[in-house]
Amino acid sequence: MARIAFIGLGTMGRPMAQVLRDAGHDVTGMDISPEMREAFVGAIAPSSDTIAAAEVIITMLPEADHVARVHETLIRAAAKPGALVIDCSTIDVNTAHALALEAMSHGLAMLDAPVSGGPAGAEAGTLSFMVGGDAANVERAQPILLAMGSKITHFGGPGTGQAAKASHNMICGITAMAVMEGFALADALDLDLDKFYALCAGAAAQSWTLENRCPIPGVVPDAPSSNNFDPGFAVRLMAKDLQLAQAAAKSSGQPTPFGAEAAKAFTKFAETRGDRDFSAFYTTLRALPEH
Ligand code: NAD
């Protein structure tokens, strides 16, 4: 069992750290927020001594700047040579690549390993990991990742985990827009939306988004739309992921016009309704009262 320093005990990090502990690992949780520390037994403020003692260091932080700062001020300065550093945050491809090279030049083994599956997947230990880094390090990380997740896909060298995450989430964002527009049109044409949902679910319009984020209250009882648009997956996170996909599209030179539209629409919506589930965007399409 490994001695693990886990940095970032938020919505995702706390349950991930907990399943690692439940699997028998020696986990010390760290967070800058006293409130977050309270929710994880034995958690402390970020500490060089704990980093220095760890065989594995995991970060689950909001954005690239946070990850870069923790690498600069804590990990590169204190981690012992050969320590395995796994960043599970969703950040941009270029930063992930640069951080991995820098970590390797300091004698550390680094993986980018963003996740899909949300808080429910984190609690259940069923996350899906998209991993970039050396194959030998991925093999070394297997027991750790498999404690938190049920699927690991190794895409290639440093940054490729984030590349997969950005591309995957862009598909989700565009699909979300397609599902919401389809229902808006069906509603405007006075269709029975229960029947329309059943048709789509059994036909070519079927998707994860349709089945889990149908935007019409009451059609899918467990969907956020049936629960006041409580997340689910918050609009601000969708906007962030689509912006990361746009950054990747720009630096690779690949046009992604639908991804760009989805990024623009969710980013604007996030200015006022960032904490709602992304399917709440439907209310603006149909000019419905706000929830
Ligand atoms: P969160 O904001 O709930 O948690 C982040 C935690 O990091 C907070 O507790 C914060 O206090 C802590 N933190 C910030 N700076 C720190 C520092 N310098 N040192 C120590 N702790 C610090 O975020 P989250 O929802 O858990 O998401 C984490 C990452 O996972 C993000 O990159 C997000 O995009 C990604 N993600 C989130 C979801 C989701 O559904 N929430 C799903 C998949 C991926």
From TrEMBL:
InterPro entries: 6-PGluconate_DH-like_C_sf, 6PGD_dom2, 6PGDH_NADP-bd, HIBADH-like_NADP-bd, HIBADH-related, NAD(P)-bd_dom_sf. SUPFAM superfamilies: 6-phosphogluconate dehydrogenase C-terminal domain-like, NAD(P)-binding Rossmann-fold domains. Residues 3-156 form the 6-phosphogluconate dehydrogenase NADP-binding domain. The keyword Protein biosynthesis does not apply. Keywords: NAD, Oxidoreductase. The keyword Transcription does not apply. Residues 159-283 form the 3-hydroxyisobutyrate dehydrogenase-like NAD-binding domain. This is NAD-binding protein. It comes from Ruegeria atlantica.
